[in-house]
Design goal:
The chain is of the alpha/beta class. It has a single domain, classed as Rossmann fold (3-Layer(aba) Sandwich), CATH 3.40.50. Helix content is 35%, strand content 20%. It contains 8 helices and 10 strands. β5, α3 and β6 form a beta-alpha-beta unit. α2 packs across α3 and α3 packs across α6.
């Protein structure tokens, strides 16, 4: 396991952790407020199958530069992905979860070209209810006070049916619980772009659960249908498929898809 940094387009330092030294590169991008350490078990499993797995932390996450929970432009996240992807060898593949899935789909729409793409409950829509006053405040202050931070309302019990996952999330000092007004409006704009994106050149598979209380599986299925992506379902599982009860099967299934 090796820690490394790359420089994004605007000079922000982006941290990544590399696992293994196999012949095929896989890039991993997690969700909002996550960090590379939450994917060590996933990366180790795929490294054992002959991959070199790079787990990146976009700006504002983990040990990367940038303000927590904030971007002025969603394109900054896209630039971060491009910076890390530029260090990979040809025929690289990608796995992205939740917010990472939305970033990745927007990046693909803008020209990112992994050989294969796997998406875990991507943030194509929000299932959890955002209070109307908070959504209105976020939209109203996006330009006036873009850095205003509000609680993201994520319930750790919604991550997995394994209570240890939620407990570890709450106790993790590298996880944060806020987003800014500008982040909110940039996220919703990215969702609109992704909903209208054309079919990409690479095969895409969506790994979804209809029981996820955080992201909207209906919106994800609609995007999959529009872009010609295949769908693999895990009924009864919650948001973090790779941290769920039965995660070993999910990790194996995604690995089969990416390394196939």
């Amino acid at each position: 396991m090796e820690s490394t940094f790359v420089t994004s387009a605007d000079g922000t330092r982006i941290h990544a952790v590399v696992h293994g030294d196999g012949a095929r590169d896989i890039l991993v991008l997690g969700g909002l407020a996550e960090h590379a350490g939450r994917y060590t078990h996933v990366a180790s499993a795929w490294a054992a199958r002959g991959a070199r797995v790079t787990v990146m932390e976009p700006r504002g996450h983990g040990n990367s530069g940038g303000a927590r929970s904030h971007v002025l432009s969603w394109g900054d996240y896209v630039a971060d992905v491009n910076a890390v992807a530029s260090t990979l060898r040809p025929d690289w593949r990608m796995f992205a979860h939740s917010m990472g899935g939305l970033i990745t789909l927007d990046s693909v729409r803008a020209g990112l070209a992994p050989a294969r793409l796997a998406l875990s409950n991507p943030l194509c829509g929000v299932k959890m209810k955002v209070p109307g006053w908070k959504a209105g405040l976020g939209r109203g202050l996006s330009k006036l006070w873009p850095t205003l931070a509000l609680a993201n309302d994520l319930d750790p019990a919604h991550l997995s049916r394994d209570p240890a996952v939620g407990q570890a999330y709450l106790a993790d000092p590298n996880v944060y619980a806020k987003v800014t007004a500008r982040w909110f409006t940039e996220m919703t704009a990215a969702q609109a772009r992704v909903a209208a994106m054309p079919a990409p050149s690479m095969p895409v598979r969506f790994f979804l659960s209809d029981s996820d209380p955080i992201t909207d599986a209906v919106a994800a299925r609609a995007v999959a249908a529009k872009i010609g992506g295949s769908v693999q379902e895990y009924p009864g599982m919650l948001h973090e498929l790779v941290n769920e009860l039965g995660k070993e099967q999910v990790i194996a299934d995604v690995g089969d898809w990416l390394l196939g």
